[in-house]
Amino acid sequence: MWEYTDKVKDHFLNPRNVGVIEDPDGVGEVGSLSCGDALTLFFKLDAQGRIKEAKFQTFGCASAIASSSALTEMMIGKTLEEAEKITNDDIASFLGELPKEKMHCSVMGQEALEKAIACYRGETIKKPEGNLICECFGITDRQIEAAVRDHRLFTIEDVTGHLKAGGGCGKCHENIQSIIDQVQGKPKAMRPEPAPLTNIQKIRLIEETLEREIKPTLHQDGGDIELVDVDGHRVMVKLRGTCAGCKASQVTLKNTVEAKLRELVSKDLVVEEVRS
Amino acid sequence: MKIIYVDNNATTKVAPEVLDAMLPYFSERYGNASSMHSFGGGLIVDIRRARTQVADLIGARPEEILFTSGGTESDATAIHAALQSYPHKRHIVTSRVEHPAIKNLFERYEKNGYRVTFIPVDGQGRLDQNALFESLREDTAIVSIMWANNETGVINSIDEISREVRSRGILFHTDAVQTVGKIPIDVSHNGVDLLSMSGHKFHGPKGIGALYIRKGTKFKPMVVGGHQEGGRRAGTENVPGIVGMGKACELAGRHLGDVGTRVRQLRDKLEHALLHSVPRSMANGGQAERLPNTTSIAFEYVEGEAILLMMNEYGICASSGSACTSGSLEPSHVLRAMGVPFTAAHGSIRYSLSHYSTEEEIDFIIAKMPPLIERLREMSPFWKQAAEAALH
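Output (structure tokens, whole complex):
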């Protein structure tokens, strides 16, 4: 059993500001059912530009619900400039403390807040940059680097507690460890860069990778992919079958196709969809 | 606050009769059974009686019972013995839904160079027996299949499977930690060579377990040292634990009828009532043959840890297959192996009853659960969507 502070228990059992704002000024959604937790955050501003109302809906464990409740309390009365300074550590300290395995619950709060503010300002949050490391939870090397640096994380468990990265199948543990080693000053011997591929080699390798690594997966779901052209580091593809028009196809393109091509062909490839 | 305990697959209360039987062995009859004086050495008689009580419960002979520190040690001892006895055999077989005591052990052997086949289960948690038989080869050292699953209670046809495996000259082990004391077991009529059990799962004390080793099975000890347990497990005998486990086995034999009828009816009542009163809920493995005391119910769109902590407010103790209760972030490997969708796996609660469960307790749970799930669903961003989608 987790050791939760009284304040976490209180915010879990008597959550503040549960619900939906019908005409919100900003909404932020993070997480998903498969990840095990998700949060939708709403806020409304008053005439002076201060947050007068904040509400949330959360699917998740006690600390996820408590973090969401705490966040709404912290936001209310603040201007957006003040609110955007709230960090996940602030949420955790507002609650007294969170078990380190549960820090990702407060991170989810911070992310929802960022998204809600961006939504109000009409900005889009940039997709996390970098290469996908944890496929289960969609976490990139840049995100892991930043968390390891900013929160002084030293073990894979710390990273999992913070970002969830590495908490699923565990295949990425080695990669996470090498990021920790890099950031925390245990540099590994640099691998020599392989000689650059010629264009023909690159196209062949991309085609092979699509055939061997990607098509079989897509076929399982009734989809397919076709290589249209390769221009420098741009790989243009057409999606077919159930993939065409599937809402998740962009995710598939980036997380599966691009990640695989970067892993097996060249690190700088960008996959683009060509619509017919 | 009154405690409503429906977490008996985690551990059970020590039966009063068991405690009474054990007490004299702490500060009155505290001798060492290996001593020459009768104050200590005489305890051999007490140990022998306990060994007979354990053997009687599962249809074994007393000399086929080895006392260990619990289920995990019994599992490790069994597999270790098999692999040491047949060092040239490098293939081992188990299922995808085993307890971590077997799962992590087999994964370690896999890392150390053994070939391991993990046999899948169907959507109800039933083992793919054909896949199991087809996986067997000449260098298969041992097959280890749990008798009943700790999370869902789903029972494997161990009599049938063990006979087939044995007929091919391969050792068969079963982790029966959840089975002993809940349904009748008779190793004299099947092909089980090694069987693990644990005292605290059926009202005995913690820290004591047993391994059944069929007479004639090759054996190599894992713990070496003194000559206790016929040289098969070194270490001074845990006499109070052994006596307690013996007594617990005797009681369990007497209570099998109650567990199979009254407790089963209470379990069914609880399950039917919850499935009926909570929309979008289902029993994991509900179509399969199950232990009479266990039900695992998935409440969609809510998260198990949150459910458990709300139940905790009413003094109701249960478990969940959710990721958030453990350090891991993936929901239970058992439910995932069964293909239970994430929406349901995260919100699965296991209720496990015992001989001491009462109808009053079950009624209390039936009254408290639906509003509690409702409250969490009101908070969930997915619930309204899902409920609306279901209407269309």
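The beta strands of chain A are 26-32, 37-45, 51-59, 132-134, 139-140, 223-231, 234-241, 270-273.
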